[in-house]
C-alpha cells in the first residue's frame, strides 16, 4: 500500500498509455501489412495479366515460377490481404462508423 494518494492514478494513466501505444503499434503493423499485401497482389495480378494465354501457358516459367504457381501465389496473397482487411475494419470499426456518420450528417451538407 502506497502512502502517496496519487500513485494509483498515475499507475492507471501509465497502463492506459501502454495500451494506447500497443494499439497504435498494432494499427501501424496492420496498415503496413495491408499496403505490402495489396501491392504484391496487384503485382502478381499484373504479371498474370501480361503472361501469355493458351493451353500450354500454365507451364511457362516467369521469374523462377510457372504461371500456375504465380496464380497460386496471387490467390494466397489475396486471401491474406482480405483477412488483414477484415481485421483492419474490425479494429477500426468505431472510427469507421464515426467517419460515415460525419460524412452523411445534415450539418455537414449545409457547410460551404
Work out the radius of gyration. Answer: 24 Å
Task: Please tally the β strands and state the result.
Answer: 2
Order of strands across the widest beta sheet?
Answer: 1-2
> Could you tell me the mean pLDDT?
85
Total helical elements: 4
Helical percentage: over 70%
Class of secondary structure makeup: mainly alpha
State the shape: elongated
Largest β-sheet summary: 2 strands, antiparallel
H/E element order: HEEHHH
Low-confidence stretches: none
Strand percent estimate = under 5%
What's the N-to-C terminus distance? 58 Å
Domain count: the total is 1
Q: What does this entry look like structurally?
A:
A two-stranded antiparallel sheet has the order 1-2. It has four helices and two strands, in the order H-E-E-H-H-H. By secondary structure, the chain is mainly alpha-helical. The protein has one domain. It is elongated, with a radius of gyration of 24 Å. The longest helix is centred in the first third of the chain and has 44 residues, at 7-50.
Primary descriptors:
mainly alpha, 4% strand, two-stranded antiparallel sheet, 112 residues, elongated
What is the secondary structure topology, with strand pairs?
Blueprint: H1 7-50, E1 61-62, E2 65-66, H2 67-91, H3 93-103, H4 106-109
Antiparallel strand pairs: 1-2
Helix pairs in contact: 1-2
Amino acid at each position: 500500500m502506497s502512502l502517496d494518494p496519487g500513485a494509483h492514478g498515475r499507475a492507471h494513466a501509465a497502463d492506459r498509455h501502454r495500451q494506447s501505444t500497443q494499439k497504435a503499434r498494432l494499427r501501424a503493423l496492420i496498415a503496413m501489412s495491408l499496403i505490402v499485401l495489396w501491392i504484391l497482389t496487384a503485382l502478381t495480378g499484373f504479371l498474370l495479366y501480361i503472361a501469355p494465354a493458351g493451353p500450354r501457358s500454365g507451364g511457362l516459367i516467369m521469374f523462377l515460377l510457372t504461371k500456375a504457381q504465380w496464380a497460386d501465389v496471387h490467390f494466397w496473397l489475396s486471401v491474406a490481404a482480405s483477412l488483414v482487411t477484415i481485421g483492419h475494419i474490425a479494429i477500426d470499426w468505431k472510427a469507421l462508423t464515426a467517419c460515415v456518420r460525419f460524412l452523411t450528417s445534415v450539418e455537414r451538407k449545409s457547410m460551404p
